[in-house]
Please model this.
Amino acid sequence: MTAPLHQLGVAELGRALRAKTVSSTELTQHLLARVAAAKDLGAFLHVDEDYALARAKDADARLARGEAGALIGVPLAHKDIFVTRDMPTTAGSRMLEGYLSPFDATVVDRLNAAGTVSLGKLNCDEFAMGSATENSAYFKALNPWDRTRVPGGSSGGSAVAVAAGLVPATTGTDTGGSIRQPASFSGITGIKPTYGVCSRYGMIAFASSLDQAGVMARSAEDCALLLSAMSGFDERDATSVQQPPQDFHARMLAAREGATAAQPLKGLRIGLPKEFFPAALSTDVNGAVRAGLAELEKLGATLVDVSLPRTELAIPVYYIIAPAEASSNLSRFDGVKFGHRAKDYSNLIDMYEKTRAEGFGAEVKRRIMIGSYVLSHGYYDAYYLQAQKLRRMIADDFQQAFQQCDLIAGPVAPTVAWKQGEGADDPVKVYLADIFTLPGSLAGLPGMSVPVGLGEGGMPVGLQLLGNYFQEGTLLHAAHALQQATDWHRLTPAGV
Amino acid sequence: MALTHDDVSRIAKLARLELSGDEQAALLPQLNGFFSIVEQMSAVDTSGVDPLYTPLSAVQEVALRLREDRVTETDQRALNQRSAPAVEDGLFLVPKVIE
Model:
């Protein structure tokens, strides 16, 4: 093989493993050494070398028996939001320091069964609340393109690990953009499927009607391979979609009707919501996104103007609904059944209040406060109920737009990754930067971030693609076609 | 309508969060800053619109799924309690609540 092992993607590694040109043990050792050398990036909260090597040995035995699964022996790592039986799970919070889950999340369980080798647990914003991974209670994650900048969040560790060549793919979760935005900031490919496609069982809950698991990797093809293995109906999740497992890789490859070799996307209509291209959009992001769109046009796609008139309203709607659900979900952290308990207290209520004061960080407290307020007597109708009604109007706007197009495209974020510490004083300013990812999240639609070049300071820019419900295949097909024709997804930070 | 210090104390009580004076002082302007961007919501006429509690119900009937009523879980008490702060004889311990 010519390229170093850590530059290869999931599909290539799978082929090399099955051809026995490399063993999972060799590959795992190589990546573990890289993880150890890149400790200062803050990507991992927990690494378990012995566990990883034991799993790699199992995978090598399966490969030796001639098993042909696409993911057997492929190393990865999980966002520390997924509970794992064999490693501690913290959700990036002091509240869960040292917590050992009695079971594996369904997503983890399925990827284990597929033969993947987990190296460890990845850093993230506390309980997935944040856009920069600066809210991790343990340490920040640094953007490998420029260590003075944030990698995005909340799945920041997941993005850093892939961008820095520590693992070829990672799991992430997306509640309001937490896969798409760090993928964009770190120059990798990420997909959040339709709400309900991946089981939420064992995914530590933030906002249950929005939370969805997905994949972060270096190509659409690698995303498709992992998503096929980790998705599908799970009776342990009440909102899991009841449909048989899907082969997203086959759907990604399936030729469109009327497609030609030169124009694989012929007939594909891509809608550009005018609200996703406001005057305030930074010129570097606009330029890179337009360049990506021009390539899609060359591949046969047609660009059409559409409108999502309530895009700006998605910010308050999301920041009412998500904290409301969070305040309810996080009430389970009471110092009784698991997690931190305060040392000194005078009675039960005092124990709850001190335990939660000590265990939660500032952003989590802020969101619990917002959520408790909007759900409280006298305010519920004006805030929570009104937000849920607006959420339907936002979802209906998408259905209107999808009458004119097959996919929707725009930027993932208004700017490239910002400097560490820039969002610290003004939480509302950071919320506003989620404007382009929140509408799709509220509607529960599938979305991707695909690299389309570099902007200010040589930082990566992602193109956001949104599909209608269950159109992951169309999304992956378009992203794959783009990546067959361009090299943006192969750009890596210096030294990787 | 702006929140007051009393509101912040009351919400903290509801949320079972002990907040220091400094934390409360920092939160008040942050919460008010947040609710200033929320105000634009109330201007929209949503009469006759059904709330969207779960996203897929935007396009399809979403029925609450019930599983068959049979025993599916085995006894995992020891495993479930291994991360509990205080247990005794298989029970979770809390401060005395009945005198």
About this structure: Chain A has 16 helices and eleven strands. The CA atoms of residues 257 and 267 of chain A lie 8 Å apart. The longest strand of chain A covers residues 447-454. Residues 381-401 of chain A form the longest helix (21 residues).
